[in-house]
Write a structure and sequence with these properties.
Layout lengths: L5 E5 L13 E5 L4 E5 L10 H6 L4 E6 L15 H14 L5 E6 L1 H12 L4 E7 L14 H5 L3 E2 L5 E2 L3 H12 L14 E6 L8 H9 L3 E6 L11 H13 L10
Parallel strand pairs: 3-4, 3-5, 5-6, 6-9, 9-10
Antiparallel strand pairs: 1-2, 2-4, 7-8
Helix pairs in contact: 2-3
């Protein structure tokens, strides 16, 4: 694979993470991979600005069930199940270990993945996210955020089905990472926007305070850290953080 080339690993995975589902997955370039886990309703294209800003960094990203080109599941999937699916994505991409970057809803999945399979996670980046139950709630802008229409790689409009939004919201509403945050041993970077009204910055301080090897950093931004304007500084922060971490898997304590 040449530098910058995008490899569609598989367009029709029938069994991944122990779940009979279909997923759209892409891996760009070879080398040390970065797994990207996006927001509640966001297809993988929303990572385009960051991926471009990262240059030749190997990136794995996918449309979760019910988002973008991945059909909605027949039944709700828990955060644990979504973490198992993310682990299956790493298997499909032939990535034994990876740095994991979870944004918003994807941050919950990233925490669960790190808890369930620490040996697969080299470092953890949590952006604009929380611990779930026990977090400080935001305002009422969530409804308009969830219903916002996205675009696919061809520029066509993509509207996430209300059922998929419901399923993913339910998963987050009955999940918490508080019992296991203290056992996360990977180097962790917790990012927040100082104007985030959806997930107030205090939630990042809660995460950084409970994860032993965590550092918190606040950006001049709102909740949408996938915004193209944030991409250059976010890429710089991610690259600097990853370069300081030796790519060795962590062992479960």
């Amino acid at each position: 694979m040449t530098a910058g080339q995008v490899d569609p690993i598989v367009d029709d995975l029938r069994s991944i993470g122990g779940h009979q589902i279909h997923l759209r997955i892409e891996r760009r370039d070879e080398g040390r991979p970065l797994l990207l886990l996006g927001g509640l309703t966001r297809p993988l294209e929303r990572w385009d600005p960051l991926v471009s800003a990262l240059g030749q960094r190997s990136v794995i990203r996918f449309d979760p069930p019910g988002i973008g080109s991945s059909p909605a599941p027949l039944l709700p999937l828990s955060i644990r199940a979504l973490a198992e699916i993310a682990l299956g994505v790493l298997d499909a991409a032939e990535a034994p270990v990876a740095d994991v970057f979870g944004y918003s809803h994807g941050g919950a999945v990233a925490q669960e993945l790190c808890h369930r399979a620490p040996e697969r996670v080299t470092s953890l980046i949590l952006a604009a996210t929380s611990c779930g139950i026990g977090s400080v709630p935001g305002g009422f802008r969530m409804v308009t955020t969830m219903l916002r229409t996205e675009r696919d790689s061809r520029g066509a409009m993509v509207t996430t089905s209300p059922l998929a939004i419901l399923f993913r919201s339910l998963a987050l509403s009955c999940w918490t990472s508080i019992p296991f945050l203290g056992s996360i041993c990977q180097p962790t970077l917790v990012l927040s926007g100082n104007r985030d009204h959806l997930v107030p910055p205090v939630n990042s301080r809660i995460l950084a305070g409970r994860i032993p090897n965590a550092t918190a950093r606040q950006l001049e931004a709102g909740h949408d850290l996938q915004n193209p304007k944030c991409a250059p500084i976010l890429a710089e922060i991610v690259s600097e953080f990853s370069d300081q971490v030796t790519p060795q898997p962590a062992a479960r304590s």
